[in-house]
Amino acid sequence: MSMMVPDNDWGRRVGEAFWNEWQSQGGEITNAVRYNPDSSVSNAVQTALNVSGERARLSNIDALFLLALPEYARQVPPTMDYYYAPNLPIYATSHLHEGRLQTRLDQDLNDVVFMDIPWQIPDAAVGGEEALPFASTYQTLRDESDASMFRLMAMGVDAYELATRFSNLGAMNGLKGSTGTLYLSDDGRIHRELPWAKFQNGVPSPILIPNLNDSDE
Fold this sequence. Notes:
Distance between the termini: 17 Å
Number of domains: 2
Number of strands: 10
Number of helices: 7
């Protein structure tokens, strides 16, 4: 596994957390790159993929973990293609997804796998928007709210639902919320599982892979 995270406090926190969790699961990080978000994407990709000449050397790399904002993230897959690594899987956080359809811009993210809250990936929901948790509230807030606040509003919706159902939450098989499936653990904490999606033709689509339907982010 190779890893690309920005060279700032955010990147260091996420990078360290991912590194520790990946190793605890028996994985190995072979390359870790802290990139400058204002510098060339090419330089970071070359280091992450052991590029020699114009070709990536992937003998000890089976995937790339990417932490990046949309503008930077969109440049990574085409750069990997240039260095002859078009089939290397890319796994990313929700930060590369702006939460609105931008098909032309997001074509460059095709085949990138990521997680996000259900309300941010309605096209990846089985059944579409109508099947989203609290669909009527979703439609109202989507049309009336600032897109930059949408995730926070989704969290507020789930906080309200948890407050009204908390006494019965332990008996439920998870609450299908706007921010994911919420579970009450034995220690009294709320744990969240998020859906996986993959960009196809510039649009988030569901991943139909056994055992890769939900996971923690």
